[in-house]
Amino acid sequence: MSSMLNEAGGSAAARPQIHAARRFPATIGRFDDLADRAAIDKLTRWVEQRYRADLAERPSKHVYVSTLPEPAIAEIDRLRDSTLIRSLIAARVAPGSVIAPMKHTDELYISHYNKDRGGDQGLFDKHYDGNLRFLASSVVVRALIYLQSDATYKVVFDDSRVEKAFETYDFGLLDFHRELHWVEGQYNPTDRQRILLKCNYLVTPRNAAVAGRAALAANTAVFYVVKAAMEYSKSPRTPAERAVGFLCNLFRRMNNVHPLIPLALVAGVTTAALAAAIWGVSVL
Question: What transmembrane ranges does the database entry give (predicted)?
C-alpha cells in the first residue's frame, strides 16, 4: 500500500471515532483540467500501441499498474492521486477517516463486453466487486477512470440509484464491497475501445491502525485470489477453465445474496475434504 495517506475533513480534533462503515455512495466526476486530459490522451495512445493485439481480441484484459513502465505509471499517478478524486472521497466519508491508496491492486483494464460463462462474465452481470461487506470498520472505494470510452454502454449502480454512460475523461467512484452494479450494452467491434483504470482506496477510522492493517490484508488476499481465478477462466476452452469459470459465476451469484454464503461453502467443502482425508488415513 502506498505511504500516501489522506485524512478526510482536515483536522480531526474532537471528532467522534467511526465504529461502523456505511456504503460509499456512487459518485460521478469528470477530468476537465487540460493537463489531466493531456495525460489521459497520452496514456490512451500508449495503450493502443502497447496492447494492439489484445485490443483486437474478444476477452477483457487486466494488467497491474505496478508492472507497467515508469513513464506510464507517472501519468497514472497524476490521475489516481489527483485532488479531484481525493476530495470527492473525503467529502463522502466520515470526518477524520484515513484514505490510503491500495496501489498494489490498481489495474489497467481493456473492457470488452463478453458473456460466455467465463470468469470475466461477472464484470458485466449484476455483481459486487468484493465480498467483504461484513467488515464494518472499513470501506474500499474504487475509482473507474475512463481513458477512452463512448456512451454505448451504461453502468448501473443499483444501491445508489445512479446510472451513467461513461465517456472519455469521466470517472466513477463506488463502494467496492457494497455497491451492486452491472453493465448494459452489446459488444460491437466498431465502437471505441473502452480503456480504463481501476484504482482502489482503503478508508479506515483515525487511530485504528491495527484494524486498518487487518482490512488491508483481507482485501488484498481476496482481491488476488478472485482476480487470478477470473483471469484463468475468461473465455474458457479447456474443461478446467470451464469449471473455474462456472465456480466464479456461481460464487458471484451467491455473493449477491450474502457474502458469507460462498465463504461458508468453501469452508464446508474444505472441512469435508480434510475429514475424508483423515478418515482415509485412519482406515489405512
Answer: 260-281
Residue type, 107: E
| CATH classification for the domain delimited by 18-283, as one of 2.60.40, 3.40.390, 1.20.81, 2.60.120 | 2.60.120
Q: Is the dihedral of CA 13, 16, 20, 23 positive or negative?
A: negative
Spell out the domain ranges in the chain.
18-283
Element (DSSP H or E) covering residue 60: none
Cell 467522534 identifies what position? Answer: 16
Query: Does position 2 have pLDDT exceeding 50, yes or no?
Result: no
- Residues 24, 133: Cα–Cα separation, whole Å: 11
Residue 202, judged by CB atoms within 10 A of its CB (0-12, 13-18, 19+), counts as buried
DSSP state of 212: H
Q: Measure the CA–CA gap between 284 and 167, rounded to whole angstroms.
A: 64
Partners of 203 in the β-ladder: 99, 139
Query: Of 192, 173, 199, 184, which is closest to residue 81 (Cα–Cα)?
Result: 199
Question: Mapping DSSP to helix (H, G, I), strand (E, B) and coil, where does residue 231 land?
Answer: helix
> Tens of pLDDT along 82-116?
999 999 999 999 999 999 999 999 999 988 766 66
pLDDT tens digits, one per residue of 177-217: 999 999 988 777 777 889 999 999 999 998 888 888 999 99
What gap in Å lies between CA 157 and CA 281, rounded to an integer? Answer: 51
DSSP character at residue 237:
-
* Residue among 138, 224, 152, 147 nearest 183 (CA): 152
Q: Distances from the Cα of 74 to the Cαs of 1, 18, 32, 168, 256, in angstroms?
A: 17, 34, 19, 20, 36
In which band, very low, low, confident or very high, does the pLDDT at 281 lie, cut at 50, 70 and 90? low
